[in-house]
User: Fold this.
Amino acid sequence: MKLAKATRTALVSIMAVCGVTFAAGADTMSTATTAWDFSFTSIDGKPMPLADFRGKVLLVVNTASFCGFTKQYRALQELHTEYEEQGFAVIGVPSNDFGAQEPKAAGEIKEFCEGMFGVTFPLADKTVVSGSGAHPFYKWARNESGWLNAPKWNFHKYLVGRDGRLVTSFYSQTAPNSERVVNAIEAEIAKPQAAAAAD
Assistant:
């Protein structure tokens, strides 16, 4: 009985702490309602507001140059090329958060992506995507989809609909050209832009 009471007390304490944590996260993102409320810095050092992609479907991917999943750049570029004219874009977000596998400077990252994989999709500057110092977009996405669906490694993928709302996410090991990812992208592309904006 004493053990059960102690367990209940511990659980209550944990829930209280979690409640405070979640509330703080919610307050931080209280003014943001869609992805269009956020802006990155581009790989070239210029502002890259996501509002510039309003009405498009986005696949936002945190990337790295020295990762076992780096070869996914090729499939990401293929997706971008195939669906770009239908209102779709891949957004690459280089990050050194996981395994220090993106140590390069912005210019080197750009040269590597373009030279090795022919990347033409937009790239952000190197960005923190996890923890308390995460970029506001990633804090918002984590708040929207939950910690379990936040990046745990390089090449985590967030799918954003035409209305700027978070649709779903895909873990690093899910290939960009997998049936699951392609089907989800095509379903969002099929939504009329006006209808999606009104949702």
